[in-house]
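Anyone up for a design puzzle?
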């Protein structure tokens, strides 16, 4: 069994997870600065990385199938490798797992900051008399009466 491709794949996966982890502090800073342009850029980068991760998932499935390891979890990969390659595979899988834990922690911090800011925005909207409609993301005034001057002229 040649694990060179597997090690390369694990390195790619760890790099993508690292890229995603590095975006989280940028998102936090953008939210705190109320910089929607930077936040939007971060979200675009996250989307690109998520597409890359999907591609890596497909690559993983093909790679594991080619190695006869279909259905083997990341945690168990090293146990299915030849003894002379176990150390390198175990080290690579641990690197991926460590990076994933860092990502989860960074995402939780970003989520907390974003949710806090959203609560503040909702509170300000409520103070200004703007309330979200039930089941809708749009905000409208609490009055059900249309404002004058906002009607449509249907005369042709």
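Challenge accepted. My sequence:
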């Amino acid at each position: 069994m040649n694990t060179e491709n597997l090690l390369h794949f694990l390195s790619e996966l760890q790099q993508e997870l690292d890229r995603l982890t590095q975006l989280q502090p940028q998102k936090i800073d953008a939210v705190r600065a109320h910089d929607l342009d930077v936040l939007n850029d971060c979200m675009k980068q996250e989307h690109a990385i998520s597409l890359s991760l999907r591609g890596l998932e497909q690559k993983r499935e093909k790679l594991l199938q080619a190695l006869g390891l279909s259905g083997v979890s990341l945690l168990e990969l090293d146990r299915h490798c030849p003894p002379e390659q176990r150390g390198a595979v175990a080290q690579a899988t641990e690197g991926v797992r460590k990076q994933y834990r860092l990502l989860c922690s960074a995402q939780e911090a970003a989520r907390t900051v974003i949710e806090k800011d959203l609560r503040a925005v909702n509170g300000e909207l409520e103070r200004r008399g703007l309330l979200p409609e039930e089941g809708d993301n749009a905000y409208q005034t609490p009055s059900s009466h249309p404002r004058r001057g906002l009607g449509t002229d249907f005369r042709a």
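A detail worth pointing out: The chain has three helices and two strands.
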